[in-house]
Amino acid sequence: MTDQQRVICLDVEGVLMPEVWVQLAELTGIHDLKRTTRDEPDYDVLMQYRLGILAEHDLTMTTVAEVPSDRGPSNGHFPTASSLVHDQGRCCLT
C-alpha cells in the first residue's frame, strides 16, 4: 500500500448515523416528522414543513438539538459505517 491520502465524502446523517428528524419522530410520536429529502426533495419546503410541525406541537429547535446524539458508528448502530471509517485508517468526524 502506498502513502497516498484518501478523501471520503459522504452524507453523515442517514449514512453514518440515523436521521435526527426520524429519531425526533420516534421520541415524540409525531409521525409527520419522519419526512425526509427522499419524500420532499426541495429542502426549503421540507424545512418549512418541519418547522410548521414543531410549532403545531409547541416544540422548538432546542428540542431537536436534544435528540440523543450517541447513535453513531462507534456504538454499533451502523456497523458497516463503522467498518468503513476503521478500514480507511485515521480520520476525523466533526
Sum up the structure in keywords:
94 residues, mainly alpha, thrh gene product, domain 2, 39% helix, elongated
Describe the fold and architecture:
- 39% of the residues lie in helices and 0% in strands.
- The chain is mainly alpha-helical and 94 residues long.
- The protein has one domain (20-87): thrh gene product, domain 2, CATH 3.90.1470.10.
- The longest helix is centred in the middle third of the chain and has 14 residues, at 43-56.
- The radius of gyration is 16 Å and the shape is elongated.
- The mean pLDDT is 76.
- Give the SSE string: HHHH
Mean pLDDT: 76
Radius of gyration: 16 Å
The tally of domains stands at 1
- The CATH class is Alpha Beta
Which ranges are low-confidence, i.e. pLDDT below 50, for 5 or more consecutive residues?
A: none
Helix amount: 25-40%
Strand content: under 5%
DSSP strand count: 0
The fourth-level CATH homologous superfamily is thrh gene product, domain 2
Count of helical stretches: 4
- Shape category: elongated
CATH architectural label: Alpha-Beta Complex
Instruction: Assign the CATH topology.
Output: thrh gene product, domain 2
End-to-end separation: 27 Å
How many strands, which pairing sense, and closed or not: the largest β-sheet? Answer: none
Class by alpha and beta content? mainly alpha
